[in-house]
Amino acid sequence: MSAATAPVDSGRVALAGLLGSSARRNAWILGLLGFLALLLVFTKLIQPNYGVPGIQGLAISVLPLALAAVAQAIVVISGGIDLSIGSMMALISVVSATLMAGQSEQFDVAVVVGVLVLGLLLGAVNGGLAVVTRVPDIVVTLAMSFVWAGCALLVADSPGGGAAQWLKDLVTGSIGNEWIPKPAVVLVAVVALIWIPVRRSRLGLSIYGVGSDRLAAFRSGVSVGRTRILAYALMGLFAALAGLSLTASTGIGTPVPGPYTLMSVAAIVLGGVSLAGGRGGVFGPIVAVMILQIIRTDMTFLDVDTNLATVLQGLILIGVVMIGSIVQIRRARG
Amino acid sequence: MRGVAGTSGARSPWLGTAAWRGLFSDRPMIPLLALLAVLVVASEIVRPGIVGPEWIGIMLRAAVPLAILAGCQTLTMLTGGIDLSVGAVASMAGFVVASLAAGSGVPTGIVIALVAAALAGLVSGIGVGVFRVHPLIMTLGMSLVVLGLVNFWQLQTITTSTGIPGEFRTVGSSTLAKILPYSLVVFVPLAAIILVGLRRTGYGRLLYAIGDNPVAARLSGARSWQILIVLYVVSALLAAAAGFLISGLTNTASVSLADSYVLPSVAAAVIGGTSIMGGRGGFAGTIVGALILTVLSSLLTSLGYPEAVRQILFGSIIVAVAAAYTRVTTES
Q1: Cβ–Cβ of A314/B152 closer than 8 Å?
Q2: Minimum distance, in Å, between the CA of residue A241 and any CA atom of chain B
Q3: Sign of CA pseudo-dihedral B233, B239, B245, B248
Q4: Which of A156, A81, A188, A9 is nearest to B137 (CA)?
Q5: CB distance A65 to A293 below 8 Å
Q6: Where does the pLDDT of residue A224 fall: very low under 50, low under 70, confident under 90, or very high at 90 and above?
Q7: Every domain of chain A and the residues it spans
Q8: Domains located in chain B, CATH noted
Q9: Could B131 and A157 be called an inter-chain contact, meaning their C-beta atoms sit closer than 8 Å?
Q10: H or E element at residue B175
Q11: In this structure, what are the phi and psi dihedrals at residue A202, rounded to the nearest 5 degrees?
Q12: What is the pLDDT of residues B97-133, one digit of tens each?
């Protein structure tokens, strides 16, 4: 009997591992997906000709923040937080745009690889500082946000540069079916190629372990400092991808950080990642980013004042998190 | 023999690093004031003759709003929280008064701004205290709400004048005999209330208690939700006061006026020795932290570096100071 159920179980475990490893978290993600579906239906109702262009616009506008949210999710799961993601994205964006301007396609490939490595290094610097100085992560990364923003201004003090055509093509249009926008494919591919292997490796387990209980992880033989630095380096890699996606979608590099840092924190919390660390995944935050973006689009369709749209975004953020925390309190009592 | 050992034992504390560390961890104000002194001396070296009564007046004037906003961070950080809505609330307060000054008068404007700030604080406090939303998220969401509403308000009142009332300009930017800024009239009572409140009142002790050990505080009968609601209302009111001063200081009313103060206010509180984990710190250190940041940024400006280099140095120095401070004050 156990032999018969084992494959089913392992299949289920794998699925659960993909979506998050507990039923409660899956419930949260399913709820988010339901909300997303409702929003899409609602969008179709208020804007009957919402279709392929809408979905493509959604995918391209979601990409930078989704990658930033994945970056933030990784570091928050490891028990830290990074308030310099926006500045890092700006730095990567100007560095790549400045280097790529007017260069050959082959050189641009080298540039992309180079800035991804740069992202890893920037993240590792943040993590290394937090580990070595023992200053709380939030303080270190807050201060580093000034440093990276300053570096971005050093590279270029005004928006400019260029992007390789193949890089721009990578995030525009669709692939195969017109309902599958390329940016979405890029997002899925990047997460599947980088995060999922890490998640299933020792490192992934260590990241969750360190995030949920640093002392317990240390006593189980996990190298806490190294794990945290690697988590930050991974964050830097995703922040670099987010910065590259900014360059690719706009065709230029902008040295001024966008609102990505705080929005990424908001997105991961909506996406079911606990700010206390150790719980959540990267799928929920991506869905949360899509929800936030569709709400913004719907506001435009409904001709709601953009400022009231900001208010509503804040209220939805607060409201959803409140619901989540009530559910949690209820569970803790029951 | 014993006497010799005694003397060497008595002497070594003044030579060993451990003893310095002990001294600093007992009196964390000493290294902070030393750093401030170093920065003042450096300012004098970079531009000889600059440090004088007038310079002190300018520095104090610039540091006061930052110190008040850092006070919001200090209070919330003591409970293990943080208030990221101070920028939006401060800008809102300055903007509301400026837009109402011509029509309804300054006092009405101030009352309306304070009521609006208190409401924002009340909502944040309920979210954090009752619904146990993480303060980072709660105040972040609140700042989006406040920002959106002020923008909306701005569009509604676009026709009315939005001049800064003269009273604000006087209080925010004038100095008495070129030394003492009038903003101290606002700051000194507020600072006294915070300092005495934290040290001498039961409410102040409760803030430390729920930050240090929430479970112990609850078991000893502290109603943390009431404490937190009051705390976030107080924090929003302080932010509004800072907003009045900033609008007077810069003579502008804009919906993003105080945004650039948010991150430095957190940095000032941290440099001043308040732990972001809660339970440790105080407002005196925060005031010195705000002064340090103000003198530092003026020093970097007078060195003539471009904006980019200034930002890099500013960030690096905050990390360095926070690291040194952590090293000096934490017992291993």
Answers
A1: no
A2: 23
A3: negative
A4: A81
A5: yes
A6: very high
A7: 62-282
A8: 31-327 (1.10.3470)
A9: no
A10: strand B175-176
A11: -55, -45
A12: 888 877 778 888 899 999 999 999 999 999 999 988 8
